[in-house]
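pasting for ref. prot 1 ->
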Amino acid sequence: MKTKKALVISTGGTIEMSQGPAGFDMPSQPSEGPVEPGGLPSWLEVEHRRLFSLPSPSMTPSRMAGLCRLLADEERSGRWDGMVVTHGTDTLEESAFLADISLEGSCPVVFTAAMRSPSELGVDGPRNLRGALLTSVSDGFHNFGTVVVLNDEIHSAARVTKTYTSNVSAFASPGYGPLGFVDDDRVIFARAPLGRVHLPPGTLTLDERVGLVRTAAGLGAREVRCCVAGGDRAVVVEAFGRGNVPPDVADAIEEAVASGVTVAVTSRCFMGRVLGVYGYPGGGADLERRGAFLAGDLPGHKVRLFLMACLGAGLDGAASAALLGSPA
C-alpha cells in the first residue's frame, strides 16, 4: 500500500489532561503528542505539531483563526494526505466550523477530542485519534469539508454539536445524523454534506465585534441594546421556534438595524430552520420587515463566527446573508 502522511496539530483539551489536586488540568509540561493512538497501519506516517496547550474554554476566536490560518498554510503546502486537530470538546464545534467555512478543501481536515482524560477509566482519546487519522487519509473522503470524529462517528463540522456534558457519545448532528463511521480498520461514508457555506477566498480575518443574545420569556431586548451600546457591528439573536421573539426584542432589533448593526436571527431549537411565517410583532416575517435576516438552520454560536469572518472580509449584512442563502 502506498505510504500516506498525516499531520496532527494539538491544541490541548481533555485528551491531554491529567488529574491534579484541584481537578483535571493541562499538564505543566505538555508531552510530544496528545495521546498515543496505537494500532495504526504501517503505511501511515504521522507528524505532530503543537500549536496550543489550552483547556477548551480558553480557545478564543482569535486563536481559532490562528489555527485555521495554520491549516490553510499546510493545506497549500501539498505535503499531507490528511490533517487532524486535537481539541477540547467545549469549543471544538466552533473551531471546526470556522475551518470548514474558510479552508479550500484540498486536504481533508478532521477534528477530534476526548470526553475522558488519560487518567480516567474507559479513556476514549486514543481510539478517537486513531479514527480521526484513518478518516483523514481515507480514499473515500471527497469534498466533505471539515469533519469531526468521536466515538467512531464522522460528523459534518457545520452540523455537529455537543449534546451531553460527559458521555463519550456526546457529539451528534441533530436532524442530520453522521456522515459515516469508523469500523475497526475501515472508514465507511454513508452520505455527503450538501449546501455548505464558504467564505470568499483570502486570508481569514475576524472582526470580533459580534454579539450573541439568547431569548427567553421576557428576555432579550436589554441584551440586544447592550450589544449595540458596546460597539458590536453585528448581533446574532437566538429566537424561539421558527424565528420569533417578544415584541420588545423586535423593537430593539429594529433600533439596532437603524443604527447600522447587522442582525441575524437563528433558533434556539436543535433542529429546523428559521422562516418568516409569523407576521405578528416579533414574528419571523415581522423581523425581516424590520431589517433582520434569517440565518437558516445554523446555531447561533456558529453564525456568530461566520459574521465575524464576513465582517473581517469587508462584507456587509446583505452579502453575509447571501452567502448563507438567506435574503437580507
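and prot 2 ->
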Amino acid sequence: MENQNINKIYDQAMDEISSSSTSEKLQELKIKFLAKKSVLMSLLSTLGTLPPEERKAMGQRLNEVKAEISKAIEEKENELRKAEMEKKLKSETIDISLPSKKVELGGQNPFYVVKDEITDIFLNMGFEVADGPEVETDLFNFELLNIPQDHPARDMQDTFYISDSLLLRTHTSPVQAHTMKEANGKPIRIICPGKTYRRDDDDATHSHQFAQIEGLVIDKNINIGHLKATLELFVKKMFGEKREIRLRPSYFPFTEPSVEVDITCASCGGKGCSMCKGTGYIEILGGGMVHPNVLKMNGYDPDVYSGFAFGIGIERVAILRYGIDDIRKFYQNDVRFLNQYRKKA
C-alpha cells in the first residue's frame, strides 16, 4: 500500500515537472515534493511501524524517488535556462547589414603637442620642471629680475594689474626667482612652462595671453658656450638635424650679455626667401647669461656662480612647425582647426 502511494506521488511529480514552464513553478515543486513537510517526506514517519524487511525496502524506495524527482527538477531547470538564453540571444541579435555609428577620434591641439615635446627634450637633458603662480607680486615679476620701478623695460611688458603690487605675470621668469630663493645658493637646472599675460592687441600674431617655456641653469663655471650648445641641441631635436642656429646681440634686463636666437629657414635652408625676408634665418627665442644683479638679489655670489637663461614662445614654435597663420586659433576651441593637424600631431 505504501509503495502504491510512493508511486502515485512520483507520477504526479513527474507530470507537474514536465508541464512546468517557469523557474518559479519549479521552485514551488521543490517545496511541494522535497521539503521536510512534503507528502513524500511525511511517509518517512511511517517507517517505524513497518516490519524490518519492509522498512528497508520502503526506505530505499523513498530515497530513489526523492533522487529521481530532484534530478528531474534540475534537468528541467537547465532546459528552461537554455530556452531563456536562446530567446534573449534571438531578441538581441545585431543586424550587421545596418551602418554602424561613426566614432570620431579627437585631435590634440598642436599647442600641447609642441609643449609636451619641448618639455621632453629638456627633461632628457637633465632639466627639471618648475611651476609657479600666474598671479604674481611686483617683487618677483619685476624687481628680483633687475627691472626696478620706472625702468623703461616695464613698458615692453605692460600687463593686467589686480592691485598696486599684484599682477598677472608677464613671463614665467618669476618661477626662476622663486626657485633661486628656495635653492639657497645650490646649483639649478630647470624649465618653467606656463601661461603669461600682457596687454596687447588681438590679431593674427598677437594675443593678450600666450605661453612660454623658460629655462635656467646656475652653477660654477657656466658660460655662453653652454647656452649655445644647449639651444643647438634643442633646435636639432625639435626641427631636425639640418637646422642651424645663429646668436645675435640683444638686450634683456635680466641677462648680460643677451642674445636673440635664430634658426635657419625651413623653406629655403638658409639661402633666403620670402618666408625669412631674405635673411635665411627666423627668430625663435631669446636668452643670455644671468645678470650678476639677478644672481645677487636671489641669493647667489656672482663671483662664484654664473648661469644662463632662455625663453621660448610655445605658440611661435607651433606656428613654425605646422605653418599656422593665426595665433588665436590655438584658443578658439574649433574642432575644424584640430582636425587639420590631427595626423600631423
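DSSP finds eleven helices and nine strands in the chain.
Strands lie at 128-129, 135-137, 166-168, 188-197, 209-219, 245-252, 255-264, 281-290, 306-313.
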